[in-house]
Design brief:
The protein is of the alpha/beta class and about 150 residues long. It has a single domain (about 5-150), classed as Rossmann fold (3-Layer(aba) Sandwich), CATH 3.40.50. Helices cover about 55% and strands about 15% of the residues. It has seven helices and five strands. It has helices at about 10-15, 20-30, 40-55, 60-80, 85-100, 105-120, 135-140; strands at about 5, 35-40, 80, 125-130, 145-150. β4 (about 125-130), α7 and β5 (about 145-150) form a beta-alpha-beta unit. α1 crosses α2 and α5 (about 85-100) packs across α6. The longest helix is centred in the middle third of the chain and has 17 residues, at about 60-80.
Length: about 150
């Protein structure tokens, strides 16, 4: 059993079954997998933006988006563990783009993964960042974080 921090690029696949990798994400998130599912607080903001972008692009309609959003909210209450962000974590995230070609929120996701690894070190050595973003996956690997790449 692992602790899995899902960034938004991977987590959106749990809700949009048309996304490549959706089956893999759903399998990892199944309660029977025994995995602990972690998310950053910013994941809700990014997921809302991603779902609404898909509506604007005509990939699905508002009714389907609203269903996905409600399901995410239920999962966030019942299944996901949301990491707390504080100033030291943001400070660490602000340093990461100097070492890696990361966008802002990707740096926050990576900082959360590194924080989760430190936080859970006494419990498990299997803390993984789950992402569909190659740049983030590469940066996480360079930082010594285990990566579950889900293209």
């Amino acid at each position: 059993m692992a602790a899995l921090l899902f960034d938004t690029s991977a987590l959106v696949k749990r809700y949009d079954l048309a996304e490549a990798g959706a089956r893999r994400v759903r399998a990892l998130c199944r309660l029977s997998s025994g995995h602990t599912i972690l998310i950053a607080p910013i994941t809700a903001v990014e997921l809302a933006a991603a779902l609404n972008r898909k509506v604007r692009e005509g990939r699905f309609g508002p009714v389907q988006r609203d269903l996905m959003w409600r399901l995410f909210l239920a999962h966030r209450r019942q299944r996901y563990h949301t990491l707390a962000l504080d100033n030291p974590l943001y400070d660490h995230a602000a340093r990461l783009p100097f070492a890696h070609p990361l966008r802002g929120y990707d740096a926050v996701q990576l900082a959360c993964g590194l924080y989760a690894r430190r936080l859970l070190a006494a419990v498990t050595s299997d803390v993984r960042l789950c992402t569909a973003d190659q740049r983030l996956a590469t940066a996480a690997a360079v930082e010594g974080l285990l990566v579950e790449f889900i293209p």
